[in-house]
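User: For a teaching handout, I'd like to show students what a predicted protein-ligand complex looks like in token form. I'll give you the sequence and the SMILES for zinc ion. Please answer with just the structure.
Assistant: Understood, here is the input followed by the structure.
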Amino acid sequence: MIVYRGVRFEAAEESETITTNITSSKGYLTMNTPIETIRFAELLEAEETRNKPYNGQIAYLTRDLLAAIGEDPDREGLQRTPERVARMYEELLAGYKTDLTALVNGAVFSSEYTDMVVVRDIEFHSLCEHHMLPFTGKAHVAYIPDGKIIGLSKIPRIVEMFARRLQVQERMTGQIARTLQEVLQPKGVAVVVEGIHMCAMMRGVKKSEASMVTSFMTGVFENDESLRKEFLAHLTR
Ligand SMILES: [Zn+2]
């Protein structure tokens, strides 16, 4: 039984061949096949790969999607679209594969600092899980340390880890807050996310200013209104 992994499509821009590198249990194979005769199905003959979401399968399905839309997947402009879409999803949905322990590793420090730490205007790009259309915006994160602080760059990385998945903004907001709470065990975490949703702008209600604000508070931020106000004041400065 051969399980194909990491099928990469490397169509040369000028030549008429597509090079496919297939890593199998039998080693590394390279095939050169004329582009006119290649069918993604032939590259994916191992049945077990159908259940694994990976690059080759996404390309294969995108080709089917183009045909279902009524397009000709073989016309010039679309020939490499399945491959591009597969690479795009690999990037936009990379958050599923992010290892949180590796991400924060070595970046949590002891500290006597007890005031609020605020990281604002963290840009994010996500995909809504209802339509798989982008929603983008800014996340603002605050926490009140209880003996531990985290390296500044790690908070945007945590935001990115949850943004690069199929999401709803409400859940993403909570995941960011709870993750920081778990990692740092601070006195409290506050997260506010502002997002603009393409699914609301491009279709249905067609509101061009469809901005949505969500928030999630833990610990002292839940009970202390003055702390919440202080955090929100930081965001309007
Ligand atoms: Zn949507």
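For the handout, you might add this sentence: Residues 128, 130-131, 133, 197, 199 surround zinc ion (CB under 6 Å).
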